[in-house]
Every structure is written in structure tokens, then in C-alpha cells.
Design brief:
With 274 residues, the chain is an alpha/beta fold. The protein is built from ten helices and eight strands. It has a four-stranded parallel beta sheet, with helices on both faces. It has a four-stranded parallel beta sheet with strand order 6-5-7-8, with helices on both faces. The protein is elongated, with a radius of gyration of 23 Å.
């Protein structure tokens, strides 16, 4: 298999470079990418250090590294792009055409129209705290503040999805576990505590075989992780979703990022942070 070194470089967090770069790199199954992230390259001294790192990779592997860059500062960007690498400069690629179309000079550092870093941090912290406080049905008294309430049987990805929604989008996401007792006692009914908020409900389900593997990792023996129990709970949960018109998603082959993005889109939620 071909091996190539890839650098994600930015004068900020490098999240944009990573996200964009990964979405392109996954199209190449026959290449083994060795990924290196270099965030906060915001001085010439740091740029020089990054340049040496990139050129060293070229020397060691004999292959040109690949760079995904979102550096704004023109001098730093020029130094990075002088390296012995194949560069994908996201700033130059997209800012130029936008500037031409909008006929407005870019501000090169953000605009007062956007929330400040401090405001965004507060939104993230509050949303994540909400997810933690309202995790797994610990409390249901704050459901009136929820943007969405994820429901599903145990180990269907509710908690990590809620945390990601809070961290990435600033969404207030609670989750409620559908136990076997809930599903049997409340057969054909939405559990009482959820009824006032049925318009906020979003169900998660998974193939029983996948659920069993996840549960075995947590509790290797016992009824909880048996295939029969997994099949029974999934069947009852999906019956509830269908009979009560609760939108739901099969997350068997999905990442947390994909689950969260789908919930956002299908529920028509508006992100609070960008």
C-alpha cells in the first residue's frame, strides 16, 4: 500500500483543514495516510519550525508530503507553501473567487457580525453541561429547554451524540433510555414523562447484531448482551417509533458526526456556533 504524509496546518485550530482534508482523503482507499496536525502556526518562528518538519518528512519518506492549509497571514502562508510538498491552500482556493463575486475585501481575521470566541465558548460549555445533566434520564425536569431529546435502548449512541451536538453546534440535547420495562409497560404508548415533549423526540436504533457487540464490550455475560434480548428491545423500540410517528435513524454504519448532522438536518435545528 502507498504511504503518504499529510499535514493539516492552520494559524488557528486546524479543525477546518482536518475536516476538509479528511473528506477528500477517504476517497483514496489504496493510500495509507500518515496524518500530522500543526495548529496555531501564527508566527514566523513557528512557520519555520513547521517548514522543517514538512521537509524532514519528504527526506525520510522520499515522497512529497501533502498539505491542507488554512493560514490567513500571507507571509506565514508563503513560507509554508515554499516547502517541498503538494499544497492544498484552502484560503487561496476559496477566498479569491468569493472576493471577486462579492466585490468586497476579506477582513482577514473574522467579523464583528460573528459571535466572539468567548461567546462561543460559553455556548459550548452551557450546551455540554446541559447534555451531561440531562443524560440517560438522570433528570427530566429540564426537558422544556431541550432542542431535541434522543430516545433509544441502551448503547445506541445517545450520550456521545448529545455531547457532540452540544460541543459542535451549541444544541441543547437530552436523552432518555427506553428500557424493556418502559417498552412493555407502556406498550403502544410514549412513556409518560416524554409525552409533553413528543415534538422534540428523535429515535435512534441499530441492528441487533451490532448492538450485541457493543453490549458485550460493556457486559460480556448475562441477558443484557444476549442476541435475543437485543432483538427484542430493538423490535419494541422500532414499533414505538413507527406507531407514534417518532422520526428515527438506524445508526449501525454511521459515525457520531454523521448521526449528529442527520439529526440536525431532519429536525431542522439551527446551529448556535460556527
Amino acid at each position: 500500500m502507498i504511504k503518504r504524509t499529510v499535514f493539516f496546518i492552520s494559524d488557528r485550530t486546524a479543525i477546518t483543514a482536518e475536516t476538509f482534508g479528511h473528506s477528500l482523503l477517504i476517497q483514496f482507499d489504496d493510500v495509507d495516510f500518515q496524518k500530522v496536525t500543526l495548529p496555531f502556526i501564527d508566527t514566523m518562528w513557528k512557520a519555520q519550525d513547521a517548514l522543517e518538519h514538512i521537509n524532514d518528512a519528504k527526506e525520510q519518506t522520499g515522497q512529497r508530503p501533502i498539505i491542507f492549509s488554512t493560514i490567513v497571514n500571507s507571509q506565514i502562508r508563503k513560507m509554508i507553501l515554499s516547502s517541498e510538498a503538494a499544497a492544498v491552500d484552502l484560503f487561496e482556493t476559496f477566498i479569491g473567487p468569493l472576493e471577486e463575486e462579492l466585490r468586497v475585501q476579506p477582513s482577514l481575521g473574522g467579523s464583528s457580525h460573528h459571535a466572539s470566541a468567548g461567546d462561543e465558548l460559553d455556548i459550548r460549555i452551557n450546551a455540554v453541561n446541559y447534555a451531561l445533566t440531562n443524560d440517560d434520564g438522570i433528570t427530566t425536569k429540564n426537558y422544556d429547554k431541550a432542542d431535541v431529546i434522543l430516545v433509544g435502548v441502551s448503547r445506541t449512541g445517545k450520550t456521545p451524540t448529545c455531547l457532540y451536538l452540544g460541543l459542535q453546534y451549541g444544541i441543547y440535547a437530552a436523552n432518555y433510555p427506553l428500557t424493556e420495562e418502559d417498552l412493555l409497560i407502556e406498550y403502544r404508548k410514549i412513556p409518560g414523562v416524554l409525552k409533553p415533549f413528543r415534538n422534540k423526540l428523535y429515535g435512534l436504533t441499530v441492528n441487533p447484531e451490532r448492538l450485541q457487540k457493543i453490549r458485550i464490550a460493556r457486559r460480556p455475560t448475562g441477558r443484557y448482551s444476549s442476541i435475543e434480548q437485543c432483538q427484542k428491545e430493538i423490535s419494541l423500540a422500532e414499533f414505538l417509533y413507527v406507531s407514534k410517528s417518532i422520526p428515527y435513524l438506524n445508526i449501525t454504519t454511521m459515525s457520531i458526526e454523521e448521526i449528529a448532522a442527520t439529526v440536525m438536518h431532519k429536525s431542522k435545528l439551527q446551529r448556535r456556533i460556527f
